[in-house]
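Human: Here is a favour to ask of a fellow structure person. Comparing notes only helps if you start from a blank page. I am asking you to supply a protein in sequence and structure-token form. Write it directly below this note and I will take it from there.

Assistant:
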Amino acid sequence: MDKKYILVVDDDPDLVETVSMMLESKGCEVGQAYDGIEGEESIKKRRPDLIILDIMMPRKDGYVLCAELKADEKTRDIPVVLLTAVGEAVPTTTYTHADGMATEADDYIAKPIDTEGLWEVVTALL
């Protein structure tokens, strides 16, 4: 696989670092953003080959950013993997499973993340 550029967007710096290290060890180039607004700005600066996107984040959540990306003809073909603890959080937040189904994300990975499982999803989408 050619060196791919993957953008990791999550408000948890430890998770961003863990996922970034795993991707770099597999030969990927990695960009990092810590909320949906930073992610959006990063995508405008450099188009990623794939986006790993958390759902519950400040300023702009992953559902909103994913929906915007999939609605834009310039970015709709970028694979998006949503990271989610939403399944556990649905009873205590405004996030719902229906929100996730409406985003047209290419895949979902539950938190806590199994990095090898995530790598399998990434390679399948690339």
Notes: Strands lie at 5-9, 29-33, 50-54, 80-84, 107-110.
